[in-house]
Amino acid sequence: MAKKLELYYYPECPFCQRVLRAIDANGYEGIELKNIHADAQADETLVRVGGKHQVPCLFIDGKPLYESLDIIDWLAHEFA
Question: Does 1-54+74-80 carry CATH code 3.90.190.10?
Fold first, then answer.
């Protein structure tokens, strides 16, 4: 069964851009993008569920994973 993947980010963040480039470069599909600067509900969910206001954050079936390199590594293994 496929995991539910949601990436919380904002466009000006260089670490978010690193993750977004990796997603594009590797053709990873099925990741819902949540821009916390354009979506107040996403911003609130990031803090309420994740416990902190830090991006990038990849929610994997509702559990947060932080740090751009950790996210990229997880995606590489998941989509291998």
Answer: no
